[in-house]
Amino acid sequence: MAEVKNVLFAGVGGQGIILASKILAAGLIKAGYDVKMSEVHGMAQRGGSVTTQVRFGEKVNSPIIGKGQADILVSFEIMETGKWLDYLKADGKVVVNEFRIPSAPILVGKIDYPEGILDEVKSKATTYSFDASKIAAELGNIKTTNVVLFGALVKAMGLNDIDWEEVIRETVKERFIDINIKALKLGMEQL
């Protein structure tokens, strides 16, 4: 693959965004790609915006994705999708967790949670939206939402030829391996 591909993960702190991008980067490196990754944490440890960017290809010079350059946006929360949509290529894809985490101003009643975000996203890009948090909760651990979304990302980008189960075995704590492999498979089944 000569062309560099760009993956943007967006959500809020505590959703496992960084782990999902580390799994992606580890698998891509094992597959022989040059990979660069960057991460940005919001002002709060939990609840603030978090994004990670993973770029991969034959040769990647920078870890940063500019506006209009992401091949795919993986959003862990609906409102975050709208914040990062400008970074998507014209022919880009979006994987969205149909989950809401109200920000502080929403929680105190100063503003309402914005409506119509998913409709806007769907009007601008090929969009795969499902409730990954519900799938993870039904699996027995809501913290596997990140790997459910990761499974959908793998399918959406056609990265099925990488042994993601092996990467998960090498990346997550031993006691969470089996449930994360199940989460990966369930995520892939969503597309």
Automatic annotation (TrEMBL):
Keywords carried by this UniProt record: Oxidoreductase
Residue ranges of every copy of the Pyruvate/ketoisovalerate oxidoreductase catalytic domain listed in the record: 13-189
Record has Transferase as a keyword: no
Highest rank taxon of the organism: Bacteria
GO molecular function, one term: oxidoreductase activity, acting on the aldehyde or oxo group of donors
Record's keyword annotation contains Lyase: no
Listed SUPFAM superfamilies: Pyruvate-ferredoxin oxidoreductase, PFOR, domain III
PANTHER family, sorted: INDOLEPYRUVATE OXIDOREDUCTASE SUBUNIT IORB
Name the UniProt record assigns to this protein: Indolepyruvate oxidoreductase subunit beta
Protein species of origin: Helicovermis profundi
